[in-house]
């Protein structure tokens, strides 16, 4: 039996579970809103082309209108000024879209403080308990934020000062980008930076450092609570949009059960 045949057999027997980490994509899917004077992307919309009618009596299909960074999506290096000369989403090697998962659980901290940011010492404490971050890993920040995903207002958690959502500190973003072996950062929030990251120096450090170092972001993940700390394998499937700075993606994990 080959390795791939064994994999399919185990998926069929449910000894390897396929965990969908993707938020449903619809007009109700939360979208990042930037303050004026900055421009914003559009929410997802379907426009009917035909629906078993005179425009197409035996088929239904739609035009999809949405931005590259809507719902569960991948950030490519060209999304940020530090990575503008890097890879667009169609140029990302597919093997880099598959990798081991390392889950850092900070749900308790986020319950106490929605502006919580991951620091280098949190990562070092995680490594002291679990060993070094695996090569090519997707570091997933488990915050419990996905529970808010069906309520755009709670998901944004914004007030007059802006959004209050968890993320990573400047130091942690720089460390993950320059010193860790990860492929990218996955989060449950609308973007890979904290809601208050516009006040950091540099602003939005997860974007600034990770995308500037040929690493990627995955946002609005769901089902993270179903993943083990280590041992799962993540597969991200963005559309290969030519010149795209990102893409909505179907993201899932393979989790082996004894």
UniProtKB/TrEMBL annotation:
Keywords, alphabetical: Hydrolase
Example GO molecular function: hydrolase activity
Keyword tRNA processing: no
Name by which UniProt lists this protein: Cyclase family protein
Superkingdom, natural source: Bacteria
Enzyme Commission designation: 3.5.-.-
UniProt xrefs under InterPro entries: KFase/CYL, KFase_sf
């Amino acid at each position: 039996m080959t390795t791939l045949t064994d994999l399919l057999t185990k998926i069929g027997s449910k000894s390897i579970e396929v965990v969908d980490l993707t938020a449903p994509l619809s007009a109700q899917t939360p979208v990042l809103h930037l303050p004026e004077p900055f421009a914003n992307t559009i929410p997802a919309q379907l426009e009917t082309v035909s629906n078993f009618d005179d425009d197409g009596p035996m088929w239904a299909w739609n035009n999809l209108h949405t931005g590259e960074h809507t719902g569960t999506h991948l950030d490519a290096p060209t999304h940020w000024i530090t990575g503008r000369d890097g890879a667009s989403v169609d140029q990302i090697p597919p093997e880099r879209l598959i990798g081991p998962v390392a889950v850092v659980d900070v749900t308790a901290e986020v319950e106490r403080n929605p502006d919580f940011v991951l620091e280098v010492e949190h990562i070092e404490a995680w490594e002291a308990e679990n060993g070094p971050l695996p090569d090519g890993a997707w570091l997933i920040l488990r915050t419990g934020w996905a529970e808010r995903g069906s309520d755009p207002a709670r998901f944004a958690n914004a007030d007059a000062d802006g959004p209050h959502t968890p993320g990573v500190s400047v130091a942690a973003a720089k460390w993950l980008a320059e010193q860790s072996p990860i492929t990218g950062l996955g989060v449950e929030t609308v973007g890979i930076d904290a809601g208050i990251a516009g006040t950091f120096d540099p602003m939005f450090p997860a974007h600034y450092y990770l995308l500037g170092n040929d690493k990627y972001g995955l946002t609005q993940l769901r089902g993270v609570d179903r993943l083990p700390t280590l041992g799962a394998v993540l597969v991200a499937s963005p559309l290969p949009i030519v010149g795209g700075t990102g893409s909505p993606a179907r993201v899932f994990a393979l989790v082996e059960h004894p």
